[in-house]
Amino acid sequence: VKTIGLPDKAVVTTCAYCGVGCTFRAEMRGEQLVRMVPWKDGKANRGHSCVKGRFAWGYARHQDRILKPMIRARIDQPWREVEWDEAFAYAASELNRIRDNHGRGALGGITSSRCTNEETYLVQKLVRAGFGTNNVDTCARVCHSPTGYGLKATFGTSAGTQDFDSVMDADVILVIGANPTDGHPVFASRMKRRLREGAKLIVIDPRRIDLVRSPHVEASHHLALQPGTNVPVLTAIAHVVVTEGLADEAFVRERCDWDGYLDWAGFVSQPRNSPETLEGVTRVPAADLRAVARLYATGGNAAIYYGLGVTEHSQGSSTVIAIANLAMATGNIGRPGVGVNPLRGQNNVQGACDMGSFPHELPGYRHISDGPTRALFEEAWGVTLDPEPGLRIPNMLDAAVEGSFKALYVQGEDILQSDPNTAHVAAGLAAMECVIVHDLFLNETANYAHIFLPGSTFLEKDGTFTNAERRIQPVRKVMSPLNGLADWEVTQGLANALGLGWSYTHPSEIMDEIARLTPSFAGVNFAKLDAAGSLQWPVNEAAPEGSPVMHIDGFVRGKGNFVVTDYVPTDEKTGPRFPLLLTTGRILAHYNVGAQTRRTENIAWHPEDRLEIHPSDAENRGLKDGDWVRLASRSGETTLRALVTTRVAPGVVYTTFHHPTTQANVVTTEYSDWATNCPEYKVTAVQVAASNGP
Ligand code: SF4
User: Fold this and answer.
1) Are residues 289 and 399 in the same domain?
2) The domain that contains 173 carries what CATH number?
3) In angstroms, what is the span from residue 42 Cα to ligand 1's centroid?
4) 18 CB within 6 A, ligand 1
């Protein structure tokens, strides 16, 4: 502040890190950002913030940013800087060549959950209308795609049911597979306030997260389950609800499919699903499972919050469904203080999913095979759309290795670092003829790129993000893009080089198009957003001011749908060679693969990823705190330092994935969710041994 001087202007905008979506006043002096002040009128944060949003914005001016487009014919050649027009023309000629030689199925794109709704919408439009394929996916594939599947199957739409304020009406808060203190800190503070007022807390997590015991907050129950056993834990809880007569049958009869409920109740009440039978699998004492079931079902308003510890499993979709079943069976849905709430990791993962970034869905979660929906988009875009779903990210990589997938446009995502089984990702990228990376930095994926298109930060663009509570919030330009173009303009440049003739002059026009084509966004426009500050979808004729709580009088799909979720153990097994189970997560100071936060002063707070290991497991291996260890799995190995702690149970180890020097995903497996291919990051059989360091 001293060197830049006092601010002379300010713009209110939205944080680009996590799914809480805090509002900030960005205070500027000329084109220099002086400070980010949490904005008191922000409905998601009410004047609060965390260390990422408040301090970790220095990456926007970091020397590593690439500001000129670059091209090269082969990845072993040096980059050549070019002007934007040449980069677009070269990209279009390569895409056209590959489409002519190999067909449109050889092309695909990946959108970013960090970009705005408008930018994400344009990428899926470019792939569908320009590339001529539904091979479009988003990084939600590796985080919350099971939420998309599970909540759509049960409730009819893929979104959290409540606003954040709703937690203040909860009597029982059940947190499963989430670590809000690190992952969603501002919402965690609100949750803790409610807990200090007397609400009861249940934590289901293999690790003793901070929320289990922090100043003035202590969980009534912490179920430290064996990694990979979410489904049997939830089934055992459901068994108690049904067999002890704790279900809200009046609610179920009125609001849900009764026959489906009877099928589900018959399944969960079988003796094989009792807490006593399942405690050997889950390693959770039956008495604790029974106590948690009684508290959740009879403790008043009960709200469930979950994160990637639910979704990133081979049974991720089954777990989301099991959570929804439990909420419906106990009537904990459709009013403040209850509900099913996925805590979204990235700032706009909700929005990326809303905007049709999946290979099977157009914006608004409408299946690509639905004729009337397709006709609506065909008329608006002036193209014929393929009615068949396209390839997901892992399928694109598999097809590349097999030789049928040749060209990929990746916007704002470092798939080499963030996706599972790094060696397989590298092999897929290396096999492609044209990889276009659109990003702020030359990330790990860019090592395999032929075309690099510089990206812009959230400070350099207008648009909207949608947070974990479906709140659409304005992103407002604070400074001009250093690279000359905002990301939506880059995608438009690429589209026009392919002959699409787009003529958007401002992101508000893109939102107007989204609103025309997407019923849940029908009442959204920039003027209304600026006046209201934010709007929670659905925003339409029935709810012109938005919808803080969903499914009040009826589910989006009509009757709530119970789906039986049987337990299928993961194929990833421990054994003599790989005796420990690795699970992964995040830390407060960093965000995802750290591309942004590692380029800020936050690096000092968490300069390296560490391996948490229980004292008994450390002693067995002759390890002390801070020792270097070799972490190996069937996929690969890496080296990092040990953190000896009782946070993890014996037999379980844990690490973060913020640093490319560690590359935690070198060791994760190729197993994934049965319904969505979301990777099973949370369960990897590993061995740990002393090492001399990298
Ligand atoms: Fe808020 Fe999340 Fe940004 Fe922190 S990272 S300031 S909690 S939106």
Assistant:
1) no
2) 3.40.228.10
3) 12
4) yes
